[in-house]
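Whiteboard transcription, Tuesday session. T.W. wrote the C-alpha cells on the left side:
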C-alpha cells in the first residue's frame, strides 16, 4: 500500500466525514459517511460552497474567505434537503494542495441517525458522538420501558378503580360509585333524577328455587335496566334486590314515569331458570334535584325510598314521584312487607 492509498484509508477511518478541497475550491474527496448521507448525489468535483452553505462565518462566497475562519468552529448545512446542521473545522494544507474540512453533527446527531440510517460504524471510534449515541439509545430504551410501565400501571389503576366501583354479580355500579356520581352532580349544579327500584316477590324466587335462581334473576334485571336506559345514565345495584338509577339532565316527571312503567312491564315477563318460570315485578320511587333548594344526597335518597314504599303500599308494580303524595317527617321505613 503506497502512502497516498494509506493516507486515504486512514482519513476514511479517522475522519469519516471529511472533505478534501483543492486550491480552486472544488471537492476532491469525501469521507464514507458523507457519501452514505448523499448516495445519489455526486459531490466530488463540485464546488464545496455549492454543496454546503456556511452559516458561520456569514456571507462566505469563496474558499479564501472560508480559510479566514481557520482554527475556528464552522457551522454549515447541506444546501439540498434534508438540510442537516453540521459543525466543522477547516485546515489550510498549502496553496498548492488546498484545504481539509472535518465535519460532525453535534446535537443534530439524533435526527441525522434517523434521516440517514447511520450506525456506530459510520463514526470514528474516538468521536464523542458515539458516546452520545449510546446515551441516546439507552435513554430511549429506558423511556420506552418507562412509558410501557406507566401504561401498565395506569391500566392496573383503571382496572382497580373500575372493580372498586362495580358490583361483581351484575356488572352494574355499586353504592360507592353511586355516592361518587351524586357528589359530582350536586357539586357541579347539574340537574338529575334519582330513581329507587325494589324487586317485588324476589324473596319467593329465592325461597322456592334457591340463591342460584336469585342470582340469575338479578343478572336479568341488570340487563333490562341497561336496555331501558341511556348510555349516559348510571345504574347501581344498591344491595340485595335494590337498584338506583341516576338520570343526568332528565327531570321531566312524565318521561321518568314512562321509563319506570316500561321497566316494570319488562320485569313482569317471566324469567326462566332451569325450566322454571321466575315471576317478579318492581316498585319504584323517584325524586328530582330541582325539587330542592339545595339538593342533599341523604335527603334525596330518603325521599326516593319513601316514594318507593308508597308504591308498595298502593299495591306494588307501581311508580311514584316524590311530591305526588304526602311525605311525612318520619324517618323510619313504613312497615310494608316486600
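and on the right, the sequence the group agreed on:
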Amino acid at each position: 500500500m503506497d502512502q497516498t492509498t494509506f493516507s486515504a484509508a486512514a482519513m476514511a477511518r479517522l475522519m469519516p466525514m471529511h472533505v478534501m478541497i483543492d486550491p480552486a475550491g472544488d471537492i476532491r474527496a469525501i469521507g464514507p459517511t458523507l457519501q452514505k448521507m448523499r448516495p445519489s448525489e455526486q459531490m466530488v468535483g463540485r464546488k464545496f460552497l455549492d454543496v454546503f452553505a456556511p452559516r458561520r462565518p456569514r456571507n462566505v462566497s469563496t474558499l479564501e474567505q472560508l480559510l479566514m475562519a481557520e482554527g475556528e468552529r464552522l457551522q454549515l448545512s447541506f444546501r439540498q434537503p434534508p438540510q442537516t446542521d453540521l459543525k466543522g473545522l477547516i485546515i489550510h494544507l498549502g496553496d498548492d494542495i488546498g484545504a481539509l474540512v472535518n465535519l460532525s453533527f453535534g446535537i443534530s446527531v439524533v435526527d441525522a441517525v434517523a434521516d440517514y440510517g447511520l450506525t456506530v460504524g459510520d463514526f470514528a471510534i474516538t468521536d464523542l458522538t458515539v458516546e452520545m449515541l449510546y446515551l441516546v439509545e439507552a435513554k430511549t430504551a429506558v423511556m420506552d420501558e418507562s412509558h410501557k410501565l406507566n401504561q401498565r400501571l395506569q391500566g392496573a389503576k383503571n382496572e382497580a378503580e373500575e372493580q372498586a366501583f362495580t358490583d361483581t354479580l351484575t356488572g352494574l355500579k355499586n353504592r360507592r360509585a353511586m355516592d361518587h356520581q351524586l357528589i359530582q352532580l350536586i357539586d357541579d349544579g347539574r340537574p338529575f333524577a334519582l330513581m329507587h327500584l325494589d324487586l317485588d316477590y324476589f324473596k319467593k324466587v329465592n325461597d322456592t328455587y334457591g340463591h342460584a335462581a336469585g342470582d340469575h334473576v338479578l343478572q336479568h334485571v341488570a340487563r333490562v335496566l341497561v336496555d331501558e336506559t341511556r348510555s349516559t345514565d348510571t345504574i347501581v345495584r344498591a344491595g340485595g334486590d335494590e337498584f338506583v338509577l341516576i338520570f343526568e339532565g332528565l327531570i321531566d316527571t312524565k318521561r321518568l314515569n314512562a321509563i319506570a312503567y316500561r321497566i316494570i312491564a319488562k320485569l313482569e315477563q317471566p324469567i326462566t331458570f332451569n325450566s322454571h318460570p321466575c315471576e317478579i315485578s318492581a316498585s319504584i320511587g323517584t325524586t328530582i334535584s330541582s325539587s330542592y333548594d339545595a339538593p342533599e344526597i341523604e335527603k334525596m335518597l330518603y325521599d326516593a325510598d319513601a316514594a318507593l314504599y308508597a308504591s308498595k303500599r298502593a299495591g306494588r308494580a307501581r311508580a311514584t314521584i316524590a311530591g305526588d303524595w304526602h311525605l311525612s317527617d318520619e324517618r323510619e321505613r313504613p312497615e310494608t312487607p316486600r
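Someone added at the bottom: The longest helix spans residues 128-164.
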